[in-house]
What we know:
Elements: E1 7-8, E2 18-19, E3 30-31, H1 42-56, H2 60-72, H3 103-119, H4 126-140, E4 154-155, H5 174-182, H6 188-200, E5 203-205, H7 210-214, H8 224-233, E6 243-246, H9 258-264, H10 271-278, H11 283-291, H12 293-308, E7 318-319
Antiparallel strand pairs: 1-6, 2-3, 4-7, 5-6
Helix pairs in contact: 1-3, 1-4, 2-3, 2-4, 6-12, 9-11, 11-12
Amino acid sequence: MFQHPVIESSGFHGQPKTLLSSPCMHESALTLDYYAKKCPRFEDILRDVTQAKQAQSPTTAAATLRVFFHDCMVGGCDASVLVKPTAFNKTEMDADINHSLAGDAFDLIARAKTAIELSCPGVVSCSDILAVATRDLVSITGGPFYNVPLGRLDGLVSQASQVDGNLARSNASADTMINIFAAKNFTIPEMVALIGGGHTIGFAHCSEFADRIFGPKVDPSINPKLVEGLKKTCANYTTNEGLSAFLDVMSPGVFDNRLFKNLQNGLGILASDQVLFSDPRTRPLVDKYAQDSQAFFDDFARAMEKVSIYGVKTGKEGEVRKRCDVLNSA
């Protein structure tokens, strides 16, 4: 039951409407029908590429959702996390917390960008591709469909030095996570819904939770049977850095509310997940989402809509990159 599959990881519906400017949007105005005339087949092309990649590599959904979140939480949703480092610039990819981002996500965005460029050269931003691909993958794996307004541009800057402090680490305390999200105007319920959604289909490298299971003292908040299974999965993690385990031990490939039920039973892989059940500010939300999957889906969808417009770039603030991993100025 607790034997984890081992993962080797490498590195609009509805009526068109305008999302008016808000503090999170840097005075931007995105629309659901932004590409209706400029690139009418954008979403169809992207969906085809996304479905094919997910079928080929089922960890793509989790990988892409994580890349999207790591992008948006550092300077806004502007595809800055996709930029490869150069001899002259350490980009966000160089930050240690981003070293574990899986290659399937970057491969998907590169494939999608290539396909879309053939149809509509120079029109669709990498940040729009990443936002919509993430939404589609959530839906493909069983999660809720939500609107993604379009028209965001790709950032002109990507620096490793901007990452630290904007993303919670795997051993983060409840206080740390709440403060990180609050600084970006996200509430505690939004935080819990986003973490639950990101980790219901997510996976983590063994090094991110090894101290909980190998000691010197085993974390008492983790289920002993889970410890047993994880020790087998991660036995060689010091020599094989790619070893990973799914964060939802029951239904790792399905977007559902099972993660919250797991936390109630001490089955949280990451300390930062399990603390959501032990902290009095977040435990009621864990219990709520464990009992009511629709409430979780609704809250996650609303939170993701909010994330997707956080700090987006428009006008002279950004560009449409020719390649998603290289700034046009390079």
